[in-house]
Design brief:
Layout (H helix, E strand, L loop, with lengths): L2 H37 L3 H14 L4 H14 L7 H20 L4 H12 L4 H8 L1
Length: about 130
Amino acid sequence: MTRHMKLMLAFLAILSLATTSCAKLQARDNLNKGVRAFREAHYENAVTYFKEAARLDPELTDAEVYLGTAYLQQFIPNANSEENQKNADMAIQTFQNVLKRQPDNVSAIAGLAYMYQNTSRVQEAREYYL
């Protein structure tokens, strides 16, 4: 391998690290913006920020837990609309995704238990509460 090729590979490695670090910083920024929107009860905006944070850094589990919680907050028990069902489905799916990576994540377990209880899936709710 020539010296020029070695330098080029080193440059590409550094560039790759910088890009990864930049994505992680952007993910954190989106997470923080999402938390702010969530606290202000702007759940739809929070969902957008949390999705972007999770996309930029798939290892940022907090973004996905908050995403599931933002869907949960938009869910209205016993309301029979298509949008409400979508929020329920997205909350359940998001919490299940978290548990695939972190089976002991208490927030995801509690979120699933709540969603199952309020979507008349009593046996599944009981299992998660236990």
